[in-house]
Amino acid sequence: MPVFSANLSIMFLELPFLERFAAARKAGFEIVECWFPYDHAVSTIEKVLNENGLKLVGINSAPGEPGEWGLAALPGRQKDFANSIAQALEYGARLGSAVHVMAGLAGMVPFADAQATYLENLEYAIGKADGTGVQLLIEPLNSRDRPGYFLQTVEQADAIIARSGFGSLKMMFDCYHVQRESGDLTTRLARYLPVIGHIQIAGIPHRNEPDIGEVDYRFVLSELERLGWNGPIGAEYKPAVSTWDGLGWIERLSPNSIV
After folding, report:
1. Does the structure show a pLDDT above 80 at 255?
2. Burial class (CB in 10 A: 0-12, 13-18, 19+), 151
3. Domain ranges in the chain?
């Protein structure tokens, strides 16, 4: 049976953020992730994790100003990016979490300038993460949901990770984004598994529960098992009604389910 991580920035929205940890534990999750925990002190997040016996596996670097959705590929924002990495590494090191370095919406920036800035900032982040124990991740986001986001395909992410000095990076493979942008999920999972650091799932095309939509996640999960993936799988979806009403997907996607 796969081990699922509940994304508390998109699940259990019926509750204030800090109360979602207990709700996730009550629902049976032992692992959680979130986008931006920075409205709360790292000591507060650590306390609520410990109180509920939870492990945090992923956070994002800060998104910047509205309309930026990350800073790494935005020329002129290097100082703010450096501050966001210092913040993210503080939380990641203290909480034992990986950090997704957000690229940003760079559609209005010449590609060469955005890429040069992105590579420069990633190199900086890699240097700062060295010795902290924090795994840095980069994640492609599909161009329909996030038009202008700098990193859009797994092929683009793989080429960056393959660069000299960038090998400590890993890819966040969000099946929702990959299917929306490129398709061919299981082929791409097999091809890029050596550089994947985290996997996320959601129903396609509406990003609801993973058992809703056009992708058969029972097959995808069986392929991941065959490939030897033993990490958690992030549930990053928008509940169709409420989180509690939709949690039956976990049992329905289990290998022994006949539904």
Report:
1. no
2. buried
3. 4-252
Mean pLDDT value across residues 2-19:
97
Taking the C-alpha atoms of residue 152 and residue 176, their distance in angstroms, rounded to an integer, is 12
Confidence (pTM): 0.95
Q: Is 40 left (phi over 0), alpha (psi -120 to 50) or beta?
A: beta
Active site residue 139: yes
CA distance 98 to 9: 16
Exactly one of 33, 181, 209, 236 is catalytic; which is it? 236
b/e for 112-130, b at 16 or more Cβ within 10 A?
eebbebbbebbeebbebbe
Each residue's pLDDT tens digit, 176-235: 999 999 999 999 999 999 999 999 999 999 999 999 999 999 999 999 999 999 999 999
Would you say how long the chain is, in residues?
259
Query: What is the torsional sign of CA 120, 122, 127, 128?
Result: positive
Would you call 209 a catalytic residue per the annotation?
no
Contacts of 118 (CB under 8 A, 6+ apart): 72, 73, 103, 106, 150, 151, 160
Assigned CATH topology for domain 4-252: TIM Barrel (3.20.20)
Annotated active-site residue in 14, 33, 139, 181: 139
